[in-house]
Amino acid sequence: MKAKFVGNIALALMLALGIVYSGIALSGWVSGEVRESNLYRQSVIISSVFSQEDDVGLSTVLTDQRARGLMFKFARALTSAYVSFELIPYGQLETFGVVYASLGPHVEIGDFAYRGHDLVITGSAPNEESYREFLESLKDSGYFLAVRGIFGAAQGGGVNFEIECLATNRQGP
After folding, report:
1. Which residues does residue 159 pair with via DSSP β-bridges, in sequence order?
2. pTM
3. 89: closest CA among 73, 77, 101, 71?
4. pLDDT tens-digit profile of 3-32?
5. C-alpha angle 49/122/83, rounded to 5°?
6. For position 139, what pLDDT does the model report?
7. Under a CB-based contact definition with an 8 Å cutoff, are residues 52 and 96 in contact?
8. For the chain, which domains are there?
9. What is the Cα–Cα distance from 140 to 133, expressed in whole angstroms?
10. What is the H or E stretch that residue 159 is in?
């Protein structure tokens, strides 16, 4: 009887150890899967972007709906560039700040993307003059090595544009 009892305890301990080990292994796998997810990478990038001191702060992005929408588009572009090893996201809040400060009230940014280290901005404006003001403001910032753009007539009026901002003059850490 005593041997059966000890055998049951040993079996219960082995079962408990197996459950604990499985839980540890499963949590390690889940944690690895989470770290490999784009959502996790995006949150790390946004965190590193906001950990730097710049003109456009977290309070602006959280309180200004337009800035918040643009920051999410910008973060998607950063994540994509980071995941494909095209860009290390150092100092990118400064880049966002330059773009945001250059943005006129009537210009709408459709998307951001990176081609290598160069930022590409696509969007629309109600007229060519608004587009050109945005383009010139980006050039006048002195932040980018070069800024060039193309535009065309949009259906229903206005213009669609693509602006390429060639790598920044700034250096990383």
Report:
1. 125, 153
2. 0.62
3. 77
4. 666 566 666 666 666 677 666 655 555 555
5. 45
6. 95
7. no
8. 37-168 (3.30.1360.100)
9. 10
10. strand 159-168
